[in-house]
Amino acid sequence: MPSYDGGWSDGWKAASGRLSLAARSLGRGVADLILPPLAHDSPEATASAGLTPGAWSRVTFLEAPVCDGCGAAFDHDGGAFAADRCPACLAAPYAFGRGRAACVYDEASRGLILKFKHGDQQRFAPLFARWISRSAADLLADADAVVPVPLHRMRLLSRRFNQAAEVARPLARSAGLDYLPDALVRARPTDSQGGKSARGRRMNVRTAFAVTEAGRRRIKGRHLLLVDDVLTTGATAEACARTLLAAGARAVDLAVIARVRNARELPR
């Protein structure tokens, strides 16, 4: 049993930590009043969540009701007796249990995501993490840990950062979940998925992923949330989920920044 002095010391440290966090938050708030944060899509100052009002209004955010399997928007709420999954997910469910996307991948969101992914603008990561924390709130509530879709080490060297990891890290932190960036690795280099058919995409990432020995111990029996940037056909997420489940994960769900309107078909 801890001594009185030890308990008092621990309590003082915890209280000091809370006061320090509150002071930092207050400092950021005062700084934002004096020098408002700039929008990600413009040099204008903004009070919104990182976008100018015009850019914000153009993004098609996905709101309930959505398919529980892939996050696709339903045209209308079918009521208490409606299926919770779209026909494609009922006919051929993904290996991951449930999927959520923050928005539709279209002209409005594509530019933002490409700036982040290929334009080395990592400032978008906290913004996208906030979007996902809202759209995938129910998945985060059930998850034990967050796993980003990995890049092969050669692509990581050329790009300098893994866009999925940059979003997954603040997402896990805000949700109070374990963050496992090294549990899943891309064991072999793969070609870009762009321009490939659905079958071509599946073949491209088949056997591309592996779980490390340390990762195997950390995922065994746990409910994982897999994080990626865009869901197109689902081939990459499918390959990752199968690999994690085969290594002992209890369940795997998926959360992405954006998805094409029909993830079972390539965008035109």
From TrEMBL:
Q: Which family does it belong to?
A: Belongs to the ComF/GntX family.
Enumerate the CDD domains for this protein.
PRTases_typeI
- Mind telling me which residue stretches traverse the membrane in this protein? none
**Phosphoribosyltransferase domain span:** 214-266
Q: Tell me the first and last residues of the signal peptide.
A: none
The molecule here is called ComF family protein
Q: Name one Pfam family in it.
A: Pribosyltran
What InterPro entries does this protein's entry cite? ComF/GntX_DNA_util-trans, PRTase-like, PRTase_dom
